[in-house]
Amino acid sequence: MSFQNPLFIPGPTNIPEAIRKACDMPTIDHRSPAFARLFKPAVEGVRRVLRMAGGEVIILQSTGTGGWEAAISNTLSPGDTVLAARFGMFSHRWIDLCQRHGLNVQIIETPWGEGAPLAAIEAALRADEAGRIKAVLATHNETATGVKSDIAGIRRAMDAAGHGALLFVDGVSSIGSMPFEMAGWGVDIAVAGSQKGFMLPAGLAILGVSDKALAAMEGATLPRTFFDFRDMLKSYAAGGYPYTPAVGLISGLAKAVEMLEDEGLEAVYARHARLAEGVRRAVAAWGMKPCAVSPELYSDTVTAVVVPAGCNGTDLVKLAADKYGVAFGVGLGEVAGKVFRIGHLGMLTDVMVLAGLATAEMCMADLGWPVKLGSGVAAAQEFYRGSVVPMAMAAE
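^ thats the sequence. predicted structure below, dont judge the formating
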Protein backbone atom coordinates (compact mmCIF):
# COMPACT_ATOMS: atom_id res chain seq x y z
CA MET A 1 0.00 0.00 0.00
CA SER A 2 1.44 3.37 -0.99
CA PHE A 3 1.46 6.00 1.75
CA GLN A 4 1.17 8.66 -0.98
CA ASN A 5 -2.27 7.53 -2.12
CA PRO A 6 -5.31 8.77 -0.19
CA LEU A 7 -7.50 6.28 1.64
CA PHE A 8 -11.06 5.63 0.48
CA ILE A 9 -12.16 3.62 3.48
CA PRO A 10 -14.79 4.98 5.88
CA GLY A 11 -12.15 5.45 8.57
CA PRO A 12 -9.52 5.81 9.75
CA THR A 13 -9.37 8.76 7.40
CA ASN A 14 -6.51 10.68 5.84
CA ILE A 15 -4.63 12.78 8.39
CA PRO A 16 -3.91 16.40 7.43
CA GLU A 17 -0.28 17.39 7.85
CA ALA A 18 -1.20 20.13 10.34
CA ILE A 19 -2.95 17.61 12.60
CA ARG A 20 -0.12 15.11 12.31
CA LYS A 21 2.31 17.82 13.42
CA ALA A 22 0.04 18.84 16.29
CA CYS A 23 0.10 15.23 17.55
CA ASP A 24 3.90 15.11 17.28
CA MET A 25 4.93 16.93 20.44
CA PRO A 26 7.39 16.51 23.32
CA THR A 27 6.33 14.87 26.56
CA ILE A 28 4.74 17.26 29.03
CA ASP A 29 3.61 16.84 32.61
CA HIS A 30 -0.06 15.89 32.31
CA ARG A 31 -0.63 17.08 35.89
CA SER A 32 0.63 20.56 35.05
CA PRO A 33 -1.16 23.74 33.93
CA ALA A 34 0.40 23.19 30.50
CA PHE A 35 -1.85 20.18 29.94
CA ALA A 36 -4.92 22.03 31.17
CA ARG A 37 -4.24 24.79 28.63
CA LEU A 38 -4.07 22.17 25.88
CA PHE A 39 -7.04 20.12 27.06
CA LYS A 40 -9.56 22.92 27.54
CA PRO A 41 -9.72 24.00 23.85
CA ALA A 42 -10.25 20.39 22.77
CA VAL A 43 -13.20 19.92 25.15
CA GLU A 44 -14.80 23.26 24.33
CA GLY A 45 -14.31 22.65 20.61
CA VAL A 46 -16.03 19.27 20.73
CA ARG A 47 -18.95 20.88 22.54
CA ARG A 48 -19.37 23.29 19.62
CA VAL A 49 -19.07 20.57 16.97
CA LEU A 50 -21.74 18.48 18.73
CA ARG A 51 -23.97 21.56 19.17
CA MET A 52 -24.44 20.85 22.87
CA ALA A 53 -26.41 22.88 25.40
CA GLY A 54 -25.46 21.80 28.89
CA GLY A 55 -24.02 18.45 29.83
CA GLU A 56 -20.39 17.42 29.61
CA VAL A 57 -17.85 16.32 27.02
CA ILE A 58 -15.96 13.15 27.95
CA ILE A 59 -12.77 12.22 26.07
CA LEU A 60 -11.56 8.67 26.68
CA GLN A 61 -8.52 6.81 25.42
CA SER A 62 -10.33 4.26 23.30
CA THR A 63 -12.26 3.99 20.03
CA GLY A 64 -15.94 4.24 19.21
CA THR A 65 -16.56 0.77 20.62
CA GLY A 66 -15.20 1.91 23.97
CA GLY A 67 -17.48 4.92 23.69
CA TRP A 68 -20.48 2.60 23.29
CA GLU A 69 -19.37 0.65 26.37
CA ALA A 70 -18.88 3.82 28.40
CA ALA A 71 -22.34 5.07 27.42
CA ILE A 72 -24.13 2.00 28.75
CA SER A 73 -21.88 1.20 31.73
CA ASN A 74 -22.23 4.71 33.17
CA THR A 75 -26.01 4.95 32.89
CA LEU A 76 -27.53 1.45 33.09
CA SER A 77 -27.76 -1.51 35.46
CA PRO A 78 -27.70 -5.28 34.89
CA GLY A 79 -31.04 -6.51 33.55
CA ASP A 80 -32.12 -3.11 32.20
CA THR A 81 -33.92 -3.14 28.86
CA VAL A 82 -32.72 -1.15 25.88
CA LEU A 83 -34.36 -0.81 22.47
CA ALA A 84 -32.32 -1.06 19.29
CA ALA A 85 -32.88 -1.65 15.58
CA ARG A 86 -30.45 -3.99 13.85
CA PHE A 87 -29.88 -2.88 10.25
CA GLY A 88 -26.12 -3.13 9.74
CA MET A 89 -22.88 -4.39 11.20
CA PHE A 90 -22.35 -1.51 13.60
CA SER A 91 -25.86 -1.50 15.04
CA HIS A 92 -25.38 -5.27 15.43
CA ARG A 93 -22.11 -4.80 17.32
CA TRP A 94 -23.64 -2.32 19.74
CA ILE A 95 -26.46 -4.80 20.40
CA ASP A 96 -23.91 -7.57 20.99
CA LEU A 97 -21.98 -5.37 23.42
CA CYS A 98 -25.14 -4.68 25.42
CA GLN A 99 -26.02 -8.35 25.59
CA ARG A 100 -22.54 -9.22 26.85
CA HIS A 101 -23.04 -6.68 29.63
CA GLY A 102 -26.18 -8.44 30.84
CA LEU A 103 -28.69 -6.02 29.38
CA ASN A 104 -31.99 -7.14 27.90
CA VAL A 105 -31.97 -5.88 24.32
CA GLN A 106 -35.33 -5.52 22.59
CA ILE A 107 -34.32 -5.80 18.94
CA ILE A 108 -36.22 -4.48 15.93
CA GLU A 109 -34.89 -6.50 12.99
CA THR A 110 -34.63 -4.25 9.94
CA PRO A 111 -33.38 -5.10 6.42
CA TRP A 112 -29.83 -4.01 5.71
CA GLY A 113 -29.96 -0.99 3.41
CA GLU A 114 -32.81 0.61 5.34
CA GLY A 115 -32.51 3.09 8.21
CA ALA A 116 -33.79 3.17 11.75
CA PRO A 117 -37.54 2.28 11.58
CA LEU A 118 -39.27 5.26 13.18
CA ALA A 119 -42.79 3.81 13.27
CA ALA A 120 -41.58 0.55 14.81
CA ILE A 121 -39.57 2.43 17.43
CA GLU A 122 -42.58 4.54 18.37
CA ALA A 123 -44.80 1.46 18.53
CA ALA A 124 -42.36 -0.37 20.80
CA LEU A 125 -42.17 2.60 23.14
CA ARG A 126 -45.97 3.02 23.25
CA ALA A 127 -46.29 -0.66 24.12
CA ASP A 128 -43.84 -0.26 27.01
CA GLU A 129 -46.42 1.04 29.47
CA ALA A 130 -44.34 -0.08 32.45
CA GLY A 131 -41.37 2.01 31.30
CA ARG A 132 -38.94 -0.89 31.27
CA ILE A 133 -37.01 0.48 28.28
CA LYS A 134 -34.27 2.65 29.75
CA ALA A 135 -32.50 3.69 26.54
CA VAL A 136 -32.95 3.73 22.78
CA LEU A 137 -29.78 2.98 20.80
CA ALA A 138 -29.47 4.56 17.35
CA THR A 139 -26.73 4.36 14.74
CA HIS A 140 -26.76 7.70 12.94
CA ASN A 141 -24.61 6.56 10.02
CA GLU A 142 -24.45 2.81 9.39
CA THR A 143 -20.97 2.48 7.92
CA ALA A 144 -21.52 -1.05 6.59
CA THR A 145 -24.36 -0.06 4.27
CA GLY A 146 -23.89 3.67 3.73
CA VAL A 147 -27.21 4.47 5.40
CA LYS A 148 -28.03 7.65 7.31
CA SER A 149 -30.85 7.47 9.86
CA ASP A 150 -33.13 10.27 11.01
CA ILE A 151 -32.11 10.98 14.61
CA ALA A 152 -34.46 13.95 14.90
CA GLY A 153 -37.22 11.59 13.75
CA ILE A 154 -36.35 9.11 16.50
CA ARG A 155 -36.62 11.89 19.06
CA ARG A 156 -40.03 12.85 17.64
CA ALA A 157 -41.12 9.21 17.89
CA MET A 158 -39.97 9.05 21.51
CA ASP A 159 -41.78 12.27 22.35
CA ALA A 160 -44.93 11.15 20.53
CA ALA A 161 -44.91 7.96 22.60
CA GLY A 162 -44.47 10.02 25.77
CA HIS A 163 -41.55 7.80 26.77
CA GLY A 164 -38.75 8.92 29.07
CA ALA A 165 -35.98 6.65 27.78
CA LEU A 166 -32.52 8.00 27.15
CA LEU A 167 -31.41 8.41 23.52
CA PHE A 168 -27.88 7.16 22.74
CA VAL A 169 -26.49 7.83 19.28
CA ASP A 170 -23.50 6.28 17.52
CA GLY A 171 -22.18 9.20 15.49
CA VAL A 172 -18.73 7.72 14.90
CA SER A 173 -18.81 8.04 11.11
CA SER A 174 -21.00 11.14 10.95
CA ILE A 175 -19.89 13.64 13.61
CA GLY A 176 -17.54 16.22 12.14
CA SER A 177 -18.63 15.37 8.60
CA MET A 178 -22.44 15.53 8.58
CA PRO A 179 -24.86 17.80 10.45
CA PHE A 180 -25.30 16.74 14.07
CA GLU A 181 -27.49 18.58 16.57
CA MET A 182 -27.12 17.04 20.01
CA ALA A 183 -29.30 19.58 21.80
CA GLY A 184 -31.72 20.13 18.94
CA TRP A 185 -32.33 16.41 18.49
CA GLY A 186 -32.58 15.65 22.20
CA VAL A 187 -29.62 13.25 22.20
CA ASP A 188 -28.53 12.12 25.66
CA ILE A 189 -25.20 10.53 24.74
CA ALA A 190 -23.43 11.05 21.41
CA VAL A 191 -20.45 8.82 20.62
CA ALA A 192 -17.71 9.81 18.19
CA GLY A 193 -14.20 8.56 17.43
CA SER A 194 -11.04 10.49 16.71
CA GLN A 195 -10.28 8.63 13.48
CA LYS A 196 -13.24 9.73 11.34
CA GLY A 197 -14.50 13.29 10.89
CA PHE A 198 -11.92 14.61 13.35
CA MET A 199 -9.19 13.30 10.99
CA LEU A 200 -6.94 11.97 13.79
CA PRO A 201 -5.36 8.58 14.35
CA ALA A 202 -7.56 6.11 16.19
CA GLY A 203 -7.26 6.31 19.96
CA LEU A 204 -9.91 8.64 21.37
CA ALA A 205 -13.56 7.96 22.12
CA ILE A 206 -15.31 11.33 22.20
CA LEU A 207 -18.67 11.59 23.97
CA GLY A 208 -21.22 14.29 24.57
CA VAL A 209 -23.27 13.52 27.68
CA SER A 210 -26.50 15.36 28.51
CA ASP A 211 -27.56 16.47 31.96
CA LYS A 212 -30.24 13.77 31.92
CA ALA A 213 -27.63 11.09 31.23
CA LEU A 214 -25.40 12.49 33.97
CA ALA A 215 -28.30 12.16 36.41
CA ALA A 216 -28.86 8.53 35.33
CA MET A 217 -25.20 7.86 36.10
CA GLU A 218 -25.83 8.14 39.86
CA GLY A 219 -28.11 5.10 40.04
CA ALA A 220 -26.34 2.94 37.44
CA THR A 221 -24.70 -0.24 38.73
CA LEU A 222 -23.00 -1.76 35.69
CA PRO A 223 -19.30 -2.04 36.54
CA ARG A 224 -16.95 0.58 35.19
CA THR A 225 -13.47 1.65 36.18
CA PHE A 226 -11.37 2.94 33.30
CA PHE A 227 -14.50 4.35 31.66
CA ASP A 228 -16.05 5.85 34.81
CA PHE A 229 -17.43 9.28 33.99
CA ARG A 230 -17.35 10.23 37.68
CA ASP A 231 -13.58 9.89 37.82
CA MET A 232 -13.23 11.85 34.60
CA LEU A 233 -15.41 14.73 35.77
CA LYS A 234 -13.71 14.93 39.16
CA SER A 235 -10.35 15.29 37.43
CA TYR A 236 -11.75 17.75 34.88
CA ALA A 237 -12.54 20.13 37.71
CA ALA A 238 -8.81 20.37 38.36
CA GLY A 239 -7.98 20.63 34.65
CA GLY A 240 -6.61 17.13 34.45
CA TYR A 241 -7.21 13.42 33.86
CA PRO A 242 -7.67 10.53 36.33
CA TYR A 243 -4.91 8.58 34.54
CA THR A 244 -2.20 9.26 31.98
CA PRO A 245 -3.85 10.88 28.93
CA ALA A 246 -2.96 10.59 25.25
CA VAL A 247 -1.52 14.08 25.21
CA GLY A 248 -0.52 14.10 21.55
CA LEU A 249 -3.96 13.00 20.37
CA ILE A 250 -5.65 15.61 22.54
CA SER A 251 -3.36 18.26 21.07
CA GLY A 252 -4.35 16.99 17.62
CA LEU A 253 -8.03 17.12 18.56
CA ALA A 254 -7.76 20.80 19.44
CA LYS A 255 -6.12 21.40 16.05
CA ALA A 256 -8.79 19.33 14.27
CA VAL A 257 -11.57 21.43 15.76
CA GLU A 258 -9.69 24.57 14.77
CA MET A 259 -9.45 23.32 11.17
CA LEU A 260 -13.13 22.36 11.04
CA GLU A 261 -14.18 25.75 12.36
CA ASP A 262 -11.77 27.62 10.07
CA GLU A 263 -13.46 25.94 7.11
CA GLY A 264 -16.83 26.48 8.80
CA LEU A 265 -18.97 23.56 9.93
CA GLU A 266 -21.68 24.30 7.39
CA ALA A 267 -19.03 24.41 4.65
CA VAL A 268 -17.61 21.10 5.92
CA TYR A 269 -21.04 19.51 5.70
CA ALA A 270 -21.66 20.98 2.24
CA ARG A 271 -18.29 19.67 1.02
CA HIS A 272 -19.09 16.17 2.22
CA ALA A 273 -22.53 16.28 0.62
CA ARG A 274 -21.01 17.42 -2.68
CA LEU A 275 -18.29 14.77 -2.68
CA ALA A 276 -20.87 12.09 -1.87
CA GLU A 277 -23.17 13.17 -4.70
CA GLY A 278 -20.31 12.97 -7.19
CA VAL A 279 -19.58 9.41 -6.04
CA ARG A 280 -23.23 8.44 -6.39
CA ARG A 281 -23.35 9.85 -9.92
CA ALA A 282 -20.32 7.77 -10.77
CA VAL A 283 -22.02 4.68 -9.34
CA ALA A 284 -25.09 5.33 -11.48
CA ALA A 285 -22.90 5.75 -14.58
CA TRP A 286 -21.39 2.34 -13.88
CA GLY A 287 -24.90 0.87 -13.98
CA MET A 288 -24.79 0.13 -10.26
CA LYS A 289 -26.58 1.48 -7.21
CA PRO A 290 -25.93 2.23 -3.52
CA CYS A 291 -26.90 -0.30 -0.89
CA ALA A 292 -29.08 2.36 0.77
CA VAL A 293 -32.57 1.74 -0.56
CA SER A 294 -33.67 5.36 -1.08
CA PRO A 295 -32.06 8.80 -1.55
CA GLU A 296 -33.09 10.21 1.84
CA LEU A 297 -30.99 7.44 3.42
CA TYR A 298 -27.82 8.13 1.44
CA SER A 299 -24.81 8.75 3.65
CA ASP A 300 -22.51 11.69 2.94
CA THR A 301 -19.47 9.88 4.34
CA VAL A 302 -19.55 6.41 2.77
CA THR A 303 -21.23 4.77 -0.21
CA ALA A 304 -21.66 1.00 -0.22
CA VAL A 305 -21.79 0.06 -3.91
CA VAL A 306 -23.83 -3.02 -4.82
CA VAL A 307 -21.75 -5.00 -7.31
CA PRO A 308 -23.17 -6.73 -10.44
CA ALA A 309 -24.47 -10.28 -10.21
CA GLY A 310 -21.65 -12.79 -10.36
CA CYS A 311 -19.09 -10.27 -9.11
CA ASN A 312 -17.49 -10.08 -5.67
CA GLY A 313 -16.81 -6.72 -4.09
CA THR A 314 -14.00 -8.12 -1.97
CA ASP A 315 -12.10 -9.01 -5.15
CA LEU A 316 -12.09 -5.36 -6.17
CA VAL A 317 -10.86 -4.21 -2.76
CA LYS A 318 -8.01 -6.75 -2.78
CA LEU A 319 -6.98 -5.88 -6.32
CA ALA A 320 -7.01 -2.16 -5.63
CA ALA A 321 -4.69 -2.66 -2.67
CA ASP A 322 -2.35 -5.16 -4.33
CA LYS A 323 -2.04 -3.61 -7.79
CA TYR A 324 -2.69 0.10 -7.33
CA GLY A 325 -1.92 0.74 -3.66
CA VAL A 326 -5.37 2.19 -2.97
CA ALA A 327 -7.67 1.24 -0.08
CA PHE A 328 -11.44 0.78 -0.39
CA GLY A 329 -13.72 -0.89 2.17
CA VAL A 330 -14.96 -4.46 1.94
CA GLY A 331 -18.55 -5.48 2.57
CA LEU A 332 -19.31 -6.57 6.12
CA GLY A 333 -21.76 -9.05 7.61
CA GLU A 334 -24.82 -9.69 5.48
CA VAL A 335 -23.43 -7.63 2.59
CA ALA A 336 -19.95 -9.22 2.54
CA GLY A 337 -18.94 -9.72 -1.09
CA LYS A 338 -22.13 -8.04 -2.28
CA VAL A 339 -20.75 -4.51 -1.99
CA PHE A 340 -17.53 -2.58 -1.84
CA ARG A 341 -17.39 0.67 0.06
CA ILE A 342 -16.04 4.05 -0.96
CA GLY A 343 -15.31 6.29 2.01
CA HIS A 344 -15.54 10.01 1.24
CA LEU A 345 -15.04 11.74 4.56
CA GLY A 346 -12.46 13.76 6.37
CA MET A 347 -9.58 15.33 4.48
CA LEU A 348 -10.77 14.81 0.90
CA THR A 349 -11.30 17.02 -2.12
CA ASP A 350 -13.07 16.45 -5.41
CA VAL A 351 -9.70 15.90 -7.11
CA MET A 352 -8.80 13.18 -4.61
CA VAL A 353 -12.20 11.51 -4.99
CA LEU A 354 -11.79 11.44 -8.77
CA ALA A 355 -8.54 9.51 -8.30
CA GLY A 356 -10.40 6.93 -6.22
CA LEU A 357 -13.17 6.58 -8.77
CA ALA A 358 -10.62 6.12 -11.57
CA THR A 359 -8.88 3.40 -9.56
CA ALA A 360 -12.17 1.61 -8.91
CA GLU A 361 -12.90 1.66 -12.66
CA MET A 362 -9.49 0.20 -13.49
CA CYS A 363 -10.09 -2.60 -11.02
CA MET A 364 -13.52 -3.32 -12.51
CA ALA A 365 -12.01 -3.50 -15.98
CA ASP A 366 -9.18 -5.74 -14.75
CA LEU A 367 -11.75 -8.08 -13.19
CA GLY A 368 -13.87 -8.19 -16.34
CA TRP A 369 -16.84 -6.40 -14.82
CA PRO A 370 -19.27 -4.72 -17.26
CA VAL A 371 -17.97 -1.14 -17.01
CA LYS A 372 -16.78 1.46 -19.50
CA LEU A 373 -13.54 3.07 -18.42
CA GLY A 374 -14.05 6.74 -17.66
CA SER A 375 -17.83 6.59 -17.38
CA GLY A 376 -18.07 7.13 -13.65
CA VAL A 377 -15.20 9.59 -13.56
CA ALA A 378 -16.85 11.67 -16.29
CA ALA A 379 -20.17 11.71 -14.44
CA ALA A 380 -18.48 12.87 -11.24
CA GLN A 381 -16.39 15.43 -13.14
CA GLU A 382 -19.48 16.92 -14.71
CA PHE A 383 -21.10 17.32 -11.31
CA TYR A 384 -18.02 18.69 -9.58
CA ARG A 385 -17.36 21.21 -12.36
CA GLY A 386 -20.78 22.72 -11.78
CA SER A 387 -20.74 22.63 -7.98
CA VAL A 388 -17.20 23.34 -6.81
CA VAL A 389 -16.52 26.62 -4.98
CA PRO A 390 -13.54 28.32 -6.72
CA MET A 391 -10.53 28.41 -4.40
CA ALA A 392 -10.23 32.19 -4.69
CA MET A 393 -13.80 32.53 -3.45
CA ALA A 394 -13.33 29.92 -0.73
CA ALA A 395 -10.38 31.86 0.67
CA GLU A 396 -12.34 35.13 1.01
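Residues 391-396 have pLDDT under 50 and may be disordered.
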